[in-house]
């Protein structure tokens, strides 16, 4: 019975094709949470895929209804071996974004795994089906080798992450005692680079808001009225430019983060952005001046215009449009005064002379970041480096946003995220894929992490 034997076992699971078989079956289930008619399939994924596999590891599982009406259920499970052992909370999600089958490359389908060299294609394969399948297979390898896990494990699994995780925070609050643990260990998002095992400690927050401007008299002929009637499109374009300039720099001081702490700056100093195969070239002189690309992505805030609309671009007419609107997104790090965003944006627009622009907050999620000096960080780094022989890339937070606030804030847990995808995976886009060498390495390192949780000297948080 040994750590290396467990890793050898999980490596054989991958090399034999058994892991591909499991993943192919899961990808074939079109678990699109945006579709109301997918509800039976979302529940089936929980019962037939996740509950079934956990049951083979002697977990006691329950499917819990979502407190938000009409939203998918959750699976909550646990395997308690001894109250004296450390307890780990696991998380994953089985829902995916829309398949968008018409836009996949010829010969590829969102619902059938296609292997082309090292790339395995399929909708949701990167986000999140390969990732939670890797973690469950690693648990199984430890259980098979040891005859037990050597630690207590709990899990909360959702089917609504791609529609904003409705009900997740409420479930965590309601089941706070039941989900009590020493640490969350979960997998989502990309590694910093495909070849670099990565740990991130939280995520940037996200705030979506809409700007709209409508006149009271409708569209009017641009020749007869141009020059004397305000054009909503022109006004809104300038309002947007007052929020974020032509170089991507945020112009509302209240929506900027605090100065980057020396500890965080040191953690990202060696990171490179955009050097993986398939990455786009970085735009020169874009973003906050004086920062490195890594600091802009992992330690600063960004404001992006996601969509704009005015008139009819496909069939324009010679008229001043009646209205214009834009949807924007603020990605922000810990310390940002994001809860006052509406107030701050409105006050800024009034100062800039755009008081007619209406501001609506549409969605938001908090930023989180575990202290890099927390002992669970050193535990994860040490374990992964033992398994891979590689230095771990430690990110203070993911550049994107995951529902980590439910675990870090509502449950009060240290959060360790170990991603198994890579930046070029085309997550949410046609031709989404994962890399076979990354998955194989991820199976090995997660088996090592779960094995080490059953060894002496594991940190305790409770």
Features:
462 residues, alpha+beta, Aminopeptidase, Alpha-Beta Plaits, 2 domains, 6-stranded mixed sheet, 4-stranded antiparallel sheet, 13 helices, 19 strands, 20% strand, metal-binding, metal ion binding
Number of domains: 2
Using the 3D structure, state the CATH architecture of the largest domain. Answer: 3-Layer(aba) Sandwich
What is the 3D form?
A: globular
Using DSSP, what is the number of strands? 19
- CATH H-level homologous superfamily name of the largest domain: Zn peptidases
CATH topology call of the largest domain = Aminopeptidase
Structure description:
By secondary structure, this protein is an alpha+beta fold. The protein folds into two domains: 3-203 and 367-452, 3-Layer(aba) Sandwich (Aminopeptidase), CATH 3.40.630.10; 205-257 and 301-365, Alpha-Beta Plaits. 32% of the residues lie in helices and 20% in strands. The strands form six sheets. It has a six-stranded mixed sheet with strand order 1-2-6-3-7-18, covered by helices on one side. Strand 4 and strand 5 form a beta hairpin. Helix 1 packs across helix 4 (125-146) and helix 1 (3-15) runs antiparallel to helix 13 (436-452). The two termini are 29 Å apart. The model has no long low-confidence stretch (mean pLDDT 96).
């Amino acid at each position: 019975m040994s750590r290396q034997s467990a890793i050898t076992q999980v490596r054989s699971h991958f090399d034999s094709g058994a892991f591909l078989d499991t993943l192919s079956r899961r990808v074939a289930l079109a678990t699109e949470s945006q579709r109301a008619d997918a509800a039976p399939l979302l529940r089936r994924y929980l019962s037939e895929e996740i509950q079934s596999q956990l049951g083979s590891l002697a977990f006691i599982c329950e499917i819990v209804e979502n407190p938000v009406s009409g939203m998918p259920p959750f699976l909550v499970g646990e395997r308690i071996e001894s109250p004296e052992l450390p307890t780990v909370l696991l998380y994953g999600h089985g829902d995916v974004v829309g398949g968008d089958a018409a836009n996949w490359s010829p010969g590829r389908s969102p619902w059938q795994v296609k292997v082309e060299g090292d790339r395995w294609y399929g909708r949701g394969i990167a986000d999140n089906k390969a990732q939670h399948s890797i973690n469950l297979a690693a648990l199984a390898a430890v259980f098979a080798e040891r005859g037990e896990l050597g630690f207590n494990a709990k899990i909360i699994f959702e089917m609504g992450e791609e529609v904003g995780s409705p009900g997740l925070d409420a479930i965590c609050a309601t089941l706070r005692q039941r989900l009590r643990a020493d640490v969350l260990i979960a997998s989502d998002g990309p590694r910093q680079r495909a070849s670099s095992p990565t740990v991130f400690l939280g995520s940037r927050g996200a705030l979506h808001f809409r700007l709209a401007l409508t006149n009271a008299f409708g569209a009017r002929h641009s020749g007869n009225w141009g020059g004397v009637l305000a054009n909503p499109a022109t006004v809104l374009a300038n309002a947007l430019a007052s929020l974020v300039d032509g170089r991507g720099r945020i112009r509302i001081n209240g929506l900027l983060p605090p100065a980057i702490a020396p500890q965080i700056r040191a953690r990202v100093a060696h990171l490179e952005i955009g050097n993986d195969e398939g990455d786009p070239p970085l735009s020169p002189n874009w973003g906050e001046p004086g920062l490195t690309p890594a600091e802009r992505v992992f330690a600063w805030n960004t404001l992006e215009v996601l969509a704009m609309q005015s008139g009819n671009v496909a069939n324009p007419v010679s008229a001043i449009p009646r209205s214009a609107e834009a949807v924007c997104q603020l990605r922000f790090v810990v310390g940002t005064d994001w809860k006052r965003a509406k107030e701050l944006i409105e006050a800024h627009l009034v100062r800039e002379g755009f008081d007619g622009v209406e501001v609506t907050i549409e969605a938001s999620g908090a930023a989180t970041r575990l202290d890099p000096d927390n002992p669970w960080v050193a535990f994860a780094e040490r374990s992964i480096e033992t398994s891979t022989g590689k230095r771990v890339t430690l990110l203070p937070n993911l550049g994107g946003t995951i529902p980590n606030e439910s675990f870090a804030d509502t449950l009060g847990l240290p959060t360790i995220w170990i991603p198994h995808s890579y930046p070029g995976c085309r997550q949410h886009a046609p031709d989404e894929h994962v890399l076979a060498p990354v998955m194989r390495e991820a199976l090995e390192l997660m088996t090592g992490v779960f094995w080490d949780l059953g060894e002496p000297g594991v940190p305790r948080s409770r």
